[in-house]
Amino acid sequence: MSAAERREVAVAAALTEFADGGYVGTSTEAIARRVGVSQPYLFRLFPSKKALFIAAWQRGCERIEEAMGRAAEDKEGADALEAMGAAYQNLVTTDMELLRFQLQGWAASCADEDIQRATREWMLRTFRWIKQHTGLPNEEVMRFVATGMMLNVLSATGLSDEAGKWTDALDM
């Protein structure tokens, strides 16, 4: 396996480990073990635990963007937004590992400026991408993003089955 392929495997393993243990609670030893490499080799692939966390964050974000992009591919305006929302809701209610990792990313960003920068950049990029793709005003895009964050919390607290009822009740 090439170093590039090992990097891909390491990022996937890191996302899994960080989803369960968070940034602080996950050891690079556990990630290396999951990948099947030594810890020193893992550090040849990534210069630091933080760099690996950020790479996993970016991978998780790419999965979200890909799902929303596929759903809205041939749509525009409110139809695109609705398709993106359904795709996102499906993703966070069926891929709990990705949801847990996303929540761990927000938590880690509270204590680390580099992780904070990565999470902030993704939020801003996503907001701009949604706005550009749908052509909708800032207020509608902001409401959409806020609803997504609410769905994260509902899913994390086991209320994912109730998410539709909440959004309907709030007329979102």
Could you characterize what this model shows?
This protein is mostly helical. It has one domain (3-169): Tetracycline Repressor, domain 2. Helix content is 82%, strand content 0%. It has nine helices and no strands. Helix 4 packs parallel to helix 7 (113-134). The mean pLDDT is 91.
Q: What's a quick, concise take on this entry?
A:
The protein has 172 residues and is mostly helical.
Strand and helix layout:
Elements: H1 3-25, H2 28-35, H3 39-45, H4 49-71, H5 77-94, H6 96-109, H7 113-134, H8 138-156, H9 163-169
- Ends apart, CA distance between termini: 48 Å
Instruction: Name the CATH homologous superfamily.
Output: Tetracycline Repressor, domain 2
Annotated CATH topology = Tetracycline Repressor, domain 2
Provide the CATH top-level class.
Answer: Mainly Alpha
Determine the oligomeric state from the structure.
single chain
On the 0 to 100 scale, the average pLDDT is: 91
Helix content: over 70%
Keywords:
single chain, 172 residues, mainly alpha, Tetracycline Repressor, domain 2, 9 helices, 0% strand, elongated
